[in-house]
From TrEMBL:
Taxonomic placement: Bacteria, Pseudomonadati, Pseudomonadota, Gammaproteobacteria, Vibrionales
InterPro entries referenced in this protein's UniProt entry, alphabetically: DUF4440 (IPR027843), NTF2-like_dom_sf (IPR032710)
The protein, known as: DUF4440 domain-containing protein
Organism: Vibrio xiamenensis
Domain DUF4440 residue range list: 5-109
Superkingdom, natural source: Bacteria
Pfam families (UniProt xref): DUF4440
Length: 124
């Protein structure tokens, strides 16, 4: 589902992450995350972290998206990611999964997990 990939990628962008309104529009109120670090976060703590981030020339690259329908209103989005610095150094390789639910008028992320993985070739 193209809209879910677009919304997932939006959450990687600094201008979206700085906007509490945008983040809360994309995250379900009962959102939960198990981060790449293994730490668990709720919606409010993720919103606080995102809105306090500082601008960086580094960015999260993502690729190889797959969407799996769990129910008509529940989708599992999986993909790979890596952190790329402005010097083009690559680190933080992860496999990521997000569960998106349709709330009647919009899709919202209800769960996200990042799991460290072996390095992979960065695609376009």
């Amino acid at each position: 589902m193209k809209i879910l990939i677009e919304q997932e990628k939006a959450l990687h962008k600094h201008d979206v992450r700085k906007s509490e309104q945008d983040v809360r529009r994309l995250l379900h109120p009962t959102f939960m995350e198990v981060g790449r670090s293994g730490e668990t976060y709720d919606c409010d703590s993720v919103v606080d972290m995102m809105t306090q981030e500082h601008m960086s020339d580094s960015y999260l690259h993502s690729q190889d998206y797959q969407c799996i329908q769990l129910e008509p209103s529940v989708q599992l989005l999986i993909y790979k990611s890596a952190w790329i610095t402005n010097e083009q150094a690559v680190s933080g390789f992860a496999k990521r999964s997000s569960i998106w639910v349709f709330t009647g008028d919009k899709w919202q992320m209800k769960y996200h997990q990042g799991t460290p993985c072996a390095e992979f070739e960065i695609g376009a």
